[in-house]
C-alpha cells in the first residue's frame, strides 16, 4: 500500500498528467537507442565536487571531437547529480546552480549540440535526488520537469531511484515516460532503479535502458560483481531496450590497464551502454586507446542488438559469445582469476556453422588469423582476449592462429628453482613453420631452457613444449614480477608472425610454522565487492581503514578479515599447511540486511563451505583441510540475491602449517 506522503504526491501534483498534457496513452518514442547509448557522464570522476561545472562539460564535448571519440560513436554528454540548486523557484521550476552553470543549462546544451553531440541530464524518481544536499527530485513534478528539460534541449534523462517514498517503481517510471513523450521531443529514458524491481521484466516499453545493479566502484571486485549480475539477463536486451550495468570506470585509476580492457571488453560483449566515467581532460594515452578501440565498439554497437551469452564459466574461465548481424560471433575469453589460465572453446560451441576453416580476428591486437575451429588462448590474470570469429574458407590466406601457454606454478620462492613448461600450439588449418620460443624475466633472474626451443613446423593441433628452470635471486622481495613468453613463426606463404604473452611470477615467502592469524599474514591477492578487504576489522565502507570491530550476532571478535561479496582472498600455502579455521557470518554493521556464503578452497578443490548465511544468524565455525595446497583461497559469494549490504566476516581466521 502506498504511504500517506506518497498518496498525497500521487493525488496532488502528481503522477497523473495535467489536463493540458498529451493523450493518456502517447505513442511510443520511435528510433531511440536502437544501439546501446554511448557518451559521457561525470559522476564516477567528480561526484558532487566543485570541478563539475560548465567548463568541464564543454571541455568534454571539445575532447569528443578533438580526440575522435565522436567519430568512434560517442554521442551523449550527460550531467549527473548536483547541477541544480536545492530548492525550486516560486513557480516550481528547477533552478540550475549559478556557480556551476552561470549561463544556465540551455547554454551548455546549445554548446554540446553545436559540436554535433547530444546532451543529457539527471534527476530522481523521488522527492529529492541521491546527494545528501537534497536537490529536488521529479516525483510529483514529472510533466513540469520533463517540459523544462525539453525546452533546454535535453536528449537523454538519467532517472534515479532515491527518496521514492515507497511509490511503486513501475508507476513512477511510467509517469516520467509519459511526461517525456508529452513534450514531443525525443528524449532517451534511462531508468536507474538499481535492478531492485527487476525492470528488465517490465520496462521495455517504459525506457530505453535500465540499470540492473547498484552503483559501480572503481575496483576489480565491484566491476566483477556487477558483470556477474548482468550476464544472466541477456534474453531481455535488444534494440531500444538495454541492460545497463552502470557507467565505465576506465581511466579513473583504481584498476590496471589490463583490468580496464576487460571492463571495456565485457561491457561491449554485453551490449551495454558505454558511458565514459573518467575526466578526459586528464586521461592517459592508454585510456584513450581503450575507449577509442573501434573494433571493440563495433561489437557493442552491432545493430542486431544481441547481448552476449555465457557459454562456460568454470574455474573463473569465462567464455561469452555474441551473435553479430553478419553471422560472425564476438567471443570473449575472460579470466577472473589472479593467475594466467588457458581458456578454450570451439566454433561449434559459440554457434558457428561447420566449416573447413574460420577467420579469427583479435580485436585488441588488430590481427587476423585462421583456425581449424578451436578458439583458445592463455589469458593473463584479470585479462580478456576479445575475438571476432567467422566461417571463412578464404581465411587460410591469413597466418595460422598459435596459442602460447605456460604450465607449472608461477609462485616462486627466492633462491629456489621453479620448473615451468611453455607450449606453442598451432590452432590453424595451415602449418606454422620455423617456430621458435623464448622466455625472459626480470634483470638478475636466471631463466634457462632445458629442452629444445625450436621446431621446423607445427601442423594443426601440434605443440612445441619447452622446459624452463626459473630462479629468482636470493633476497628478492615478495611481490609480482613480469615474465614474457614470446613465439615467432612463419605462415605457409612466408609471412613472419610474432606473438607475446605477458605473464606474472609471484615471489612468495614460505608460510610460518604453527598457527597464524590470516588478518596478519601477507596475501597473494585480494578482491572485494565494495572497498578493500580489511585486516582485523569489518569491511566498513569504500575507503581503506574505515572498518569497525568485527561483530557477528552481537559478539565482537578481535581478529580476522572484513570483506564484501563478491570477495576472494588468496594465501600461499606452499604445500606446508594443514587447516584453516574461522568463525564466519554477516557483520552487524549493516543491520538486518545481507546474505552471504563462505567457501574455502585448496588449490582447485572446494574444501569447505557454509551455504547461505543471513544477518539474523550467529557466527558459524568453518574448518577446512588444506593439506598439500599451494594456494588457499577464501571466497565469499552473494547468496544468489545480489550484493546489497553483503558484509562478510572471517572472524578469528587462522592458518595452521
TrEMBL record:
GO molecular function: alpha-galactosidase activity
SUPFAM superfamilies in UniProt: (Trans)glycosidases, Galactose-binding domain-like, Glycosyl hydrolase domain
Family to which the UniProt record says this protein belongs: Belongs to the glycosyl hydrolase 27 family.
Catalytic activity: Hydrolysis of terminal, non-reducing alpha-D-galactose residues in alpha-D-galactosides, including galactose oligosaccharides, galactomannans and galactolipids
Signal peptide: 1-21
Keywords in alphabetical order: Disulfide bond, Glycosidase, Hydrolase, Signal
Organism from which the protein derives: Streptomyces sp. R11
Record protein name field: Alpha-galactosidase
Domain named Glycosyl hydrolase family 98 putative carbohydrate-binding module: residues: 512-657
Broadest EC class assigned to this enzyme: hydrolase
E.C. number(s) listed in UniProt: 3.2.1.22
Pfam family name, one: Melibiase_2
PROSITE patterns: ALPHA_GALACTOSIDASE
BP-aspect Gene Ontology terms: carbohydrate catabolic process
Keyword Glycoprotein: no
Statement: the UniProt record of this protein carries the keyword Hydrolase: yes
InterPro entries (alphabetical): A-galactase_NEW3 (IPR018905), Aldolase_TIM (IPR013785), Galactose-bd-like_sf (IPR008979), GH (IPR017853), Glyco_hyd_98_carb-bd (IPR013222), Glyco_hydro_27 (IPR002241), Glyco_hydro_27/36_CS (IPR000111), Glyco_hydro_b (IPR013780)
Amino acid at each position: 500500500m502506498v504511504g500517506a506522503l506518497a498518496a498525497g504526491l500521487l493525488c496532488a501534483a502528481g503522477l497523473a498528467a495535467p489536463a493540458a498534457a498529451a493523450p493518456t496513452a502517447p505513442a511510443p518514442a520511435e528510433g531511440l537507442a536502437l544501439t546501446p547509448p554511448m557518451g559521457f557522464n561525470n559522476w564516477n570522476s567528480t561526484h558532487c565536487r566543485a570541478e563539475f561545472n560548465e567548463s568541464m562539460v564543454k571541455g568534454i564535448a571539445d575532447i569528443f571531437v578533438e580526440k575522435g571519440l565522436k567519430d568512434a560513436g560517442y554521442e551523449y554528454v550527460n550531467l549527473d547529480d548536483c547541477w541544480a540548486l536545492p530548492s525550486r523557484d516560486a513557480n516550481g521550476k528547477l533552478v540550475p546552480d549559478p556557480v556551476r552553470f552561470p549561463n544556465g543549462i540551455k547554454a551548455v546544451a546549445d554548446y554540446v549540440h553545436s559540436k554535433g553531440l547530444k546532451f543529457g541530464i539527471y534527476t530522481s524518481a523521488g522527492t529529492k535526488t541521491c546527494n545528501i544536499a537534497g536537490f529536488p527530485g521529479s516525483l510529483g513534478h514529472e510533466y513540469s520537469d520533463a517540459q523544462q528539460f525539453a525546452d533546454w534541449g535535453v536528449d537523454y534523462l538519467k532517472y534515479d531511484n532515491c527518496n521514492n517514498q515507497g511509490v511503486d517503481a513501475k508507476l513512477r517510471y511510467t509517469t516520467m515516460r509519459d511526461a517525456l513523450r508529452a513534450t514531443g521531443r525525443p528524449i532517451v529514458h534511462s531508468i536507474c532503479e538499481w535492478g531492485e524491481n527487476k525492470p528488465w521484466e517490465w520496462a521495455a516499453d517504459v525506457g530505453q535502458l535500465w540499470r540492473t545493479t547498484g552503483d559501480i566502484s572503481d575496483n576489480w571486485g565491484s566491476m566483477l560483481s556487477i558483470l556477474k549480475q548482468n550476464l544472466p539477463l541477456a534474453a531481455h536486451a535488444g534494440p531500444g531496450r538495454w541492460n545497463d550495468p552502470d557507467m565505465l570506470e576506465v581511466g579513473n585509476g583504481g584498476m590496471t590497464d589490463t583490468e580496464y580492457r576487460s571492463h571495456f571488453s565485457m561491457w561491449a560483449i554485453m551490449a551495454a551502454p558505454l558511458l565514459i566515467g573518467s575526466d578526459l581532460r586528464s586521461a592517459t594515452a592508454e585510456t584513450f586507446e581503450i575507449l577509442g578501440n573501434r573494433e571493440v565498439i563495433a561489437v557493442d554497437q552491432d545493430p542486431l542488438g544481441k547481448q552476449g551469452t555465457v557459454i562456460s564459466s568454470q574455474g573463473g574461465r569465462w567464455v561469452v559469445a555474441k551473435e553479430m548481424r553478419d553471422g560472425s560471433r564476438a567471443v570473449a575469453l575472460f579470466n577472473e582469476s589472479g593467475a594466467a589460465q588457458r581458456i578454450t572453446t570451439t566454433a561449434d560451441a559459440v554457434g558457428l556453422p561447420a566449416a573447413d576453416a574460420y577467420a579469427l580476428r583479435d580485436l585488441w591486437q588488430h590481427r587476423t588469423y585462421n583456425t581449424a575451429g578451436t578458439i583458445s588462448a592463455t589469458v593473463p590474470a584479470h585479462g580478456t582476449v576479445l575475438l571476432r570469429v567467422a566461417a571463412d574458407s578464404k581465411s587460410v590466406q591469413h597466418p595460422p592462429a598459435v596459442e602460447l601457454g605456460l604450465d607449472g606454478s608461477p609462485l616462486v620462492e627466492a633462491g629456489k628453482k621453479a620448473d615451468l613448461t611453455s607450449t606453442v600450439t598451432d590452432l590453424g588449418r595451415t602449418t606454422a613453420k620455423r617456430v621458435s620460443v623464448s622466455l625472459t624475466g626480470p634483470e638478475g633472474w636466471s631463466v634457462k631452457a632445458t629442452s629444445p626451443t625450436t621446431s621446423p613446423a607445427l601442423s594443426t593441433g601440434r605443440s612445441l613444449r619447452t622446459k624452463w628452470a626459473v630462479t629468482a635471486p636470493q633476497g628478492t622481495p615478495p611481490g609480482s614480477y613480469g615474465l614474457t613468453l614470446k613465439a615467432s613463426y612463419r605462415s605457409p606463404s612466408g609471412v613472419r608472425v610474432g606473438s607475446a604473452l605477458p605473464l606474472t611470477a609471484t615471489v612468495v615467502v614460505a608460510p610460518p610454522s604453527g598457527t597464524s592469524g590470516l588478518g596478519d599474514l601477507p596475501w597473494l591477492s585480494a578482491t572485494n565487492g565494495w572497498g578493500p578487504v580489511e585486516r582485523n576489522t569489518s569491511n566498513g565502507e569504500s575507503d581503506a581503514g574505515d572498518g569497525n570491530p568485527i561483530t557477528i550476532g552481537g559478539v565482537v571478535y578481535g581478529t580476522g578479515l572484513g570483506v564484501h561479496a563478491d570477495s576472494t582472498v588468496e594465501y600461499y600455502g606452499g604445500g606446508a599447511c594443514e587447516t584453516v579455521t574461522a568463525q564466519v557470518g554477516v557483520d552487524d554493521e549493516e543491520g538486518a540486511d545481507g546474505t552471504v556464503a563462505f567457501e574455502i578452497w585448496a588449490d582447485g578443490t572446494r574444501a569447505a563451505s557454509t551455504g547461505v548465511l543471513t544477518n539474523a544468524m550467529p557466527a558459524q565455525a568453518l574448518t577446512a583441510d588444506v593439506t598439500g595446497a599451494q594456494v588457499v583461497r577464501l571466497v565469499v559469494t552473494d547468496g544468489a540475491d545480489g550484493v546489497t549490504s553483503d558484509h562478510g566476516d572471517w572472524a578469528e581466521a587462522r592458518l595452521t602449517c
